[in-house]
Amino acid sequence: MKKTFAFLFVVAIVCFAQDRHQMGSNYYAYPTPTAKYTKAPVGYKPFYISHYGRHGSRFHQPADHYHALYNTLAKADSLSKLTDLGKSLLERAKYLDEYAAPRAGDLTQLGVAQHQGIAKRMVKNFPEVFKNDAYVEAYASTSVRCVVSMAAFLEELHALKPKVEIHQESGKYLMSFISPLDFGKIIGESNTPAWQKENEKLYSHVNPTRMMREIFNDTNYIKQNVDAGDLFSKIYEIGNSLQGSPEIEFSFDDLWTEEDLTARWHAQNAWWYSVLGNNPFAKKQGLDNARPLLKNVLDEADKVIAADTAKADKTAKSAKKTTATLRFGHDTVIFPFAVLLQLENGTQNTGIETADMENLHKVWRDYEISPMAANVQLIFYKSSKKGAPILVKVMFNEIEQKLPVTCDTATVKNCPAVPYYRWEDVRTFYRK
């Protein structure tokens, strides 16, 4: 009986350790995909990829959060108000204040490796797109972490395919589709009275009291000197960011119980849904942050297909034919982009509209939608058979997706099977 209990306890700890990183919300470090891919219909080969990727793992920001955590603990320590766990946390906070704060918001080395890995797998999975005459266009947000993410991706691509011609740039004019709106304004517009009520319900399950008593040895001191809710959130955010910096040899895991972490993540997950999801309690302005990107994806694909299928004249022969369009941006765009695409995979539907915030995590999970280095890839296929339609499949974080797109079997003889769709049907659906 004791052995059985001990075994179950170990299993519970292991499961919690695995889920703990996912509960890091949008700080979840990109998981290496293991999914197998469905073979393309007979005679079809990929010829173009349209991509949007979030930057890789980064240090938490702003730097003030590191300073506040350290200063709060240092003050308490000077008054002998810290427990042993609190003193241990102070040592970690001091290190982060010196090492991580100056790097706040910057891409980590794991973030670099994530994009190198995605590039490597893209070339391996779709080699036809990167033949010697390939021409790749790459665009990045003006944010340094996005530029470095693009550089890491292209560095790997060039190492694998040195003859591929690459055009890359970052500029303010590109933000019109890479990240067009003010996120602060989106947050403000999403914070409706209806949402505030739902948010309060979720946070009623979030109680920082236990953790504060584990850190500080004086309850009166906590009441008079510590903003418990704020400190609790900073520990949650900074601690979650550490999975993106494996060179930092400690975590904040010892501060959490499974119950506390789960409750905090449920609230965080619902917040992202309220700001950038299809939330019925908010105004949904967050979705507008991805509409220009969706239009850009559709427009660029149409241009590439038109150039590829047009009868070549002398001008067309000398023109460069784009084989991949790569875009590097932010979670504030990839969240609503996934929602607009209404992707479906397993139990999750990115475009779902639900008023049940208590059970939102069962159908909409932020860590699956926008982990660090999250990406959407549209893979376009063509056949050598005359008159055959262009096909496309969508991969979300390198996993094939089911789309809300239908093929009219009454008028089309051979509708492709999921995850392949006729581009004509996909374009018509998303243009609307």
Topology:
Layout: H1 2-22, E1 44-54, H2 63-78, H3 84-99, H4 109-125, E2 135-140, H5 144-160, E3 165-170, H6 175-178, H7 183-190, H8 193-203, H9 209-215, H10 219-225, H11 228-241, H12 258-276, H13 291-309, H14 314-318, E4 322-329, H15 331-341, E5 344-345, E6 348-349, H16 366-369, E7 375-383, E8 391-396, E9 399-400, E10 421-422, H17 423-431
Parallel strand pairs: 1-4, 2-3, 2-4
Antiparallel strand pairs: 1-7, 5-6, 7-8, 8-9, 8-10
Helix pairs in contact: 2-3, 2-11, 4-5, 8-12
How do you describe this structure in short?
The chain has 432 residues and is α/β, with parallel strands linked by helices. It contains 17 helices and 10 strands. Strands 1, 2, 3, 4, 7, 8, 9 and 10 form an 8-stranded mixed sheet that branches.
Provide structural commentary.
This protein is of the alpha/beta class and 432 residues long. The protein has 2 domains: 32-60 and 105-191 and 289-432, Phosphoglycerate mutase-like (Rossmann fold), CATH 3.40.50; 61-103 and 211-281, no CATH class. Helices cover 47% and strands 12% of the residues. The chain has 17 helices and 10 strands. The strands form 2 sheets. Strands 1, 2, 3, 4, 7, 8, 9 and 10 form an 8-stranded mixed beta sheet that branches. Strands 5-6 form a two-stranded antiparallel ribbon. A hairpin with a 2-residue loop joins strand 8 (391-396) and strand 9. Helix 2 runs antiparallel to helix 3 (84-99), helix 2 (63-78) packs across helix 11 and helix 8 (193-203) packs antiparallel against helix 12 (258-276). The chain starts with a helix and ends with a helix. 41% of the residues are buried.
